[in-house]
Structures are given as C-alpha cells and as structure tokens.
Specification:
2 helices; Outer membrane beta-barrel protein; Beta-barrel_OMP_2; signal; eight-stranded antiparallel barrel; 2 domains
Length: 302
C-alpha cells in the first residue's frame, strides 16, 4: 500500500507541474502556435559582421524552420501545415562600410620582366651588359599585411605590405661589384653560366579596388589600380663557374627607393597584373640611366 500511495502522489506532483508550466505560457504564443522566441547572434561568414537575430521557433503543428541564404539576405521561414501562421523573416545582409585590416596572403604575382631603355625595349650599347633571357627574367611577389576601408560592397581602398623579387637572368659573363655605386663590372672575361642578378624589395601598394556583383559559378569581377612604393632589402648575384656555384650579396647600386604604378584585373581568385616603375633600376649610375622595369603576368588572390 505504501508503494501504491507513493506512486499516486508522484503522478499527482507531475500533473500539477505540467499544469503550472502550461499556465506560464504566454497567450500571444499559444494563439499563434509558436513554441518559443529567442535572440541569437549570427556571424556572416563572408564579411565577419555580427548581428542579433530574432528567431521564432514553431509549435508542434508548424513543421520546421528552414534557412535560405540569398545574395542580399537571409530568410527564415516557418511553414504551418494549416497555412495560417506562415512566418517569414528577412534579414538584410548588405555589406556596410567598415575598416579592413589584418594578416593576409594574397595578390601572389608571377610574371615576366621587360627592361625598358629610354622608352624602348631594345637595349642601348651602354646597357648591353644587361642582355637578358626574355622567358627566364621574372617577377615574383605577394602581400602579407593590409589595412584600409571598405566603403560599400563594390569599392574599397587599402594599403598593403609584402615582398617583391625581380630575377634578371643574363646572357653575358658580367660579374658586378656588390657594394659599389655607380654599378661597376669587376670581371667580364671569366666563362660563367646561369648568371643571375636579383633585387628584393619591400613593396607598399595603395589599392583602389572596384568589384561587381557575384556571378553564379564565376564569382566577382574585380579591377584595381594605384601607386606602389618599394624599399630595397638586398641585391644578389648568382652564377656558376668551373669551380662551382657562387653567390654574392650587396646593394648592387639598385635604387634604394623605387616608385611606380600598377593595375590588376581578375575574376574570382585569378587575374592578371601589370606594373611599371618610373625611376631607374640603378641609382647614381649615369652610364645606365633610363633603364627601367616593366612587369606583367598572372596573379592569384585579390
């Protein structure tokens, strides 16, 4: 009898608790068949923006909440089986103006280098020592930092920082003094091979970027341009003799500060680029005055 009495008492307590919970349910929710209202914080995976969202969870007769992601909004739709309480909440996700900054690995460039001698692609007699291998004289670079401001979904301005290498592969046997200005040839008689002189710069481009809407299966079209400055980090010459490989480091009279302009165009993550530097490759070297750098090629990542 004690066990039966305890069981009856326990069932009574459960029934009383359930009735109390039902009374606490707001009338406004009961009438609509909505089980709960909650507020959560959502983060847009494309922009990193966070916003509060009011979520309405349907009652047992309403089915499930579905999520649709469109180009400009999120849509939460509660579908009632009786079609009486269908609810649809649209959250605008248009990208607003905001600062952009941080570490990046983008604008990875790989292109060909053309030397321009007083506006011509043909080298003068004074610059004939830089007769280079056209298909093997290349440029490589990338950005690692950026900071700027996105004004809207189509336009942003930012300053980025990265590294840039120019590899000039020479036909001749010229060996240069690494620490002399003006640039001086120390040996032009020794038979050498794989002769290459390289400049390494810290690059600082200021980018004005425009982009279109996103196209299905293709992404956005982007166009960017702006000025670029560079500070020399080092110069290097490598070559091979009968005794083995030789590597020398120094300034090689490369311009300590160079400046120019660039343009980029791409679709999705891929594109093309071109850069032209207005000042000479070598500084305080009158014999090589007017020798400039023009680069064009492929890029990965905007």
């Amino acid at each position: 009898m004690n066990y039966i009495s305890l069981s009856i008492l326990f069932c009574a307590v459960l029934c009383a608790t359930a009735a109390a919970q039902e009374k606490k349910r707001p009338d406004s929710l009961s009438r609509t068949g909505v089980a709960a209202i909650d507020t959560v914080i959502m983060e847009d995976v494309d922009t990193g923006e966070k916003r509060k969202v009011r979520i309405i969870i349907p009652g047992k007769d309403e089915g499930m909440i579905t999520l649709e992601k469109t180009e400009k909004n999120y849509e939460y739709e509660s579908k009632d089986k009786n079609k009486e309480h269908d609810k649809k909440v649209t959250i605008d996700r248009t990208k607003k103006a905001h600062p952009i900054y941080g570490i990046t690995l983008s604008r990875i460039d790989l292109g060909l280098v053309k030397l321009i001698d007083d506006g011509s692609f043909s080298l003068s007699d004074d610059n004939e020592i830089f007769n280079y291998r056209r298909g093997k004289t290349v440029n490589f670079g990338f950005d690692v930092l950026q900071a700027g401001y996105r004004f809207n979904d189509q336009f942003r301005i930012f300053l980025s920082g990265g590294f840039d290498w120019t590899y000039i592969r020479l036909h001749g046997n010229s060996i240069f003094d690494p620490n002399t200005t003006p640039l001086t040839v120390t040996d032009n008689e020794t038979d050498i091979s794989k002769n290459r002189i390289t400049s390494t710069y810290l690059r600082l481009p200021l980018t004005f970027e425009f982009r279109s809407k996103s196209y299905t299966g293709m992404g956005r079209m982007r166009f960017a341009f702006g000025p670029e400055a560079g500070f020399l980090l080092k110069g290097t010459q490598r070559y091979r003799t009968a005794d083995g490989k030789i590597k020398q480091k120094g300034d090689y009279a490369f311009n300590q500060f160079r400046y120019g302009a660039f343009a980029r165009f791409g679709v999705g993550a891929f594109g093309i680029y071109a850069k032209y530097y207005f000042n000479d490759i070598f500084e305080n070297s009158p014999q090589h005055a007017g020798l400039q750098n023009f680069t064009f090629g492929l890029m990965l990542g905007f």
